[in-house]
Design a protein that fits this description.
Thioredoxin_domain; alpha/beta; copper; single chain
Amino acid sequence: MKQHKLHTIFTFTIFVFFIFQCGSGVELTELPIGGNIIAQDKSGTKVNLKSFPEPVILVFFGYTYCPDFCPNTLAKIKVATESFTEFERGQFRVVFVSIDPERDSSETSTKYVQFYIPNAIGYSFDLATTNQIVKQYAAYVEKTKDGLSFDHSTYLYVLDSNRKTRKLIKSTDETEVITKTIRTLSGNTVQSK
């Protein structure tokens, strides 16, 4: 009887462990949008996301004059990664692509994102290149009627070491989604096809 009771407790413990393991997992898939960016920014710097050593890149579209979504999303990434060890901080990079090339330079875009996340970089491309990258990522960008602001999508595009898009994180997702996605993908041994 005692052995049966121990077996039942052991089985229940294993069951609970697997339930929590499955529940805390992050679903990653290869998406047909986004991916590597190869272009020259307005300062003449050649950009290739594959040149970054970090296995995880979070691509975010925005502009430095953005009144709400951009600062809120960047603050959320900051909170999501505050508990990271020094090693974990070296496993990801935020790449901010300005959708306002008329007002933003790469330098101001970088200063803007580094205010929130030190291991981040900002780029500003000419309008034609910006439009091409926006199309590649299937992002939504539309200038408002007053010409001073933009309506734009606020997804974080999560790229793996092959610079394939593996997940879209919504601005409404909890910070834990960002934390778990970076941790999972930086340790993910599944190779993209």
